[in-house]
Design a protein that fits this description.
The complex is a heterodimer of chains A (111) and B (112). Chain A has 111 residues and is mainly β. Chain A contains no helices and eleven strands. Helix content of chain A is 0%, strand content 51%. In chain A, strands 2, 4, 5, 6, 9, 10 and 11 form a seven-stranded mixed sheet that branches. In chain A, strands 1-3-8-7 form a four-stranded antiparallel sheet, with no helix packed on it. Chain A starts with a strand and ends with a strand. The relative contact order of chain A is 0.34. With 112 residues, chain B is mostly beta strands. In chain B, a hairpin with an 8-residue loop joins strand 9 and strand 10. Chain B is globular. The N and C termini of chain B lie far apart (41 Å). Classes of the chains: A mainly beta (111), B mainly beta (112). At the A-B interface, strand 9 and strand 10 of A face strand 4 and strand 5 of B.
């Protein structure tokens, strides 16, 4: 069965640089979510899209933005990166808002 | 505000030693309770959805149960490959948002 695809899997950036993370949800899923997970932490919700429209917003910094495109893939744009942005970033998708299926994640390291 | 508390934070078992993980929750109307398994550095893997008190679901050595206040994940005769962090999340049926609230997880280590 098709799963959520994320790219890149690893990303190393310097402070104040910009990063773009991509997510390809499971086909026919109507909702995409972005999460940030620090070491030993539970996933923290950032933002979600329902049918390509932003639906919910969590603890997403103003330096971050996201969008979902006509082909349903989503991108998380992160600017003015800080050391504290180093984390695992997960994308998940769901159908009708029920159980979420997570991608493998992007490990972002800011140096 | 929805809350999820998982206990214990960490659990060490010998292979074959059955046990249970607890997920206590408060939510303004339960739409669904989810269990996930997460291996280090990987995305959470969906295990079960429970919708109403009394419901039970099984998958191999795992069995999830639900009451009005808590859920248990029972692990029968665990194997070392069951070692992982198990996350519980609840989703409210009211408020217009279906974003789940996650617990901090239980880290399970099964020794051979």
């Amino acid at each position: 069965a098709a799963g959520v695809i994320q790219s890149p899997r690893h990303l190393i950036k310097e402070k104040r640089e910009t990063a773009t993370l991509k997510c390809y949800p499971i086909p026919r899923h109507d909702t995409v979510y972005w999460y940030q997970q620090g070491p030993g932490q539970d996933p923290q919700f950032l933002i979600s899209f329902y049918e390509k429209m932003q639906s919910d917003k969590g603890s997403i910094p103003d330096r971050f933005s996201a969008q979902q495109f006509s082909d349903y893939h989503s991108e998380l744009n992160m600017s003015s990166l800080e050391l504290g942005d180093s984390a695992l970033y997960f994308c998940a998708s769901s159908l009708y808002g029920y159980e979420q299926y997570f991608g493998p994640g992007t490990r972002l390291t800011v140096t | 505000e929805d809350q999820v508390t998982q206990s214990p934070e960490a659990l060490r078992l010998q292979e074959g030693e059955s046990s249970s993980l607890n997920c206590s929750y408060t939510v303004s109307g339960l739409r669904g309770l989810f269990w996930y398994r997460q291996d280090p550095g990987k995305g959470p893997e969906f295990l079960f959805t429970l919708y109403s008190a009394g419901e039970e679901k099984e998958k191999e050595r795992l069995k999830a149960t639900l009451t009005k206040k808590e859920s248990f994940l029972h692990i029968t005769a665990p194997k070392p490959e069951d070692s992982a962090t198990y996350l519980c999340a609840v989703q409210a049926s009211s408020g217009g948002s279906y974003i789940p609230t996650f617990g901090r997880g239980t880290s399970l280590i099964v020794h051979p």
